[in-house]
Amino acid sequence: MKKILQMSNTTNRKIFKYWYLLVVLVFIGSILAQSARAQETSRTFTISPPTVQAELDPGQQTQGTLKIINDGDSPLVFQTSTQDFIVKDDDGTPYILPPDTLSNKYSGASWIAIYPDVITIEPHKKVEVNYYIQVPSDARPGGHYGAVMYNPTNVMSVSGTGASVNTSVGTLFYLTVKGPVSIKAMVSKFTTQGIWDFGPVKINTSILNSSDVHIKPLGTITVTNMLGQKSDVKKINEFNIFPGVSRNYETKLGKKFMLGFYRGNLNATYGPDKLPLIATTSFIVFPWKIAIFIILLALVVGFGYRYWKNPSRHEPNPPEQTQY
Fold it and tell me: Which of 107, 185, 229, 321 has the fewest Cβ atoms surrounding its Cβ within 10 A?
């Protein structure tokens, strides 16, 4: 009876091992199959340039080329289209709009034509797309904005210089129609923490564009110490700021080891007449956590030293007197 039970247990263990091995192999096979399918459906391509900027007269025509590079190992097919876009947040994120939803004040997609409208690109090849811009003779002076969208017919990932817009990729067109326009901007924020332990420090800048056209402020942020000496100078990022919205900048300045009172100064310009954008902020760099640690350590050492050097600590206790 014992032999029969032992044989039964041995058989069950063998069956369990076989089933366990089969489950593991099926699991590994499913992962490899999913990876293979992902590699088959994944594609990469590069768009250049990501933006086009042009300043045109009413009624003027112009043209140019866009490049699409297939970085993958399979052919790619795109359907192109032109759509209006706007920017609504402080980070400069473009939002593609459905047709005929943007007011004529900023609309520019209808001025742009693309040829060809269907593009096939072989692996590791480049295709040039021609664009044509026709500005209406009665176009309103100021900024007009459109995008050439590349809509892939299969799933792919994007690398390189394409401007990512929602779930699609496109080239953004910033078109300026010459004429009398309002150019106005201001620094709405130029701040940093009041006290820093160490550098580099981060200065946050926000510029509000109240113009009829996009602007691209150019300038620097300078950090000086309490003696007026320059500690660091950095250029601000060259961003287009859409009309009616702000754009945030974050600039790191200075070295790791800084000490004392510092001042940050923004000195930038915008628009064709290079109008000024100026702001100032102050901060202190002091390693207060380390300073507190050193003070506490010094107190502990000092009290300990006094304790060990106290003569009364080394004198024997006087004998107890017995009272009768």
Answer: 321
pTM: 0.72
pLDDT in tens, 99-148: 777 667 889 999 999 999 899 999 889 999 999 999 999 999 999 999 99
Superfamily of domain 44-177: Immunoglobulins (2.60.40.10)
The hierarchical CATH code for the domain 185-285 is: 2.60.40.10
Q: How far from chain centre, in Å, is Cα 7?
A: 66
pLDDT digit string (tens) for 18-71? 444 444 444 444 444 454 444 444 458 888 899 999 999 999 999 999 999 988
Q: What would you measure as the largest C-alpha separation in the chain, in angstroms? A: 126
Local structure of residue 273 (DSSP, 8 states)? T
Q: Measured between alpha carbons, how far is 250 from 254 in angstroms, rounded to an integer?
A: 14
CA distances to 107, 166, 213, 278 from 83, in Å: 9, 13, 18, 36
The structural domains of the chain, with segments of one domain joined by +, span 44-177, 185-285
Query: Whole-angstrom Cα distance, residue 320 to residue 20?
Result: 81
CA triplet 239, 244, 245: central angle to 5 degrees?
Answer: 50
**In Å, how far are 116, 156, 276 from 76, measured between CA atoms?**
15, 9, 47
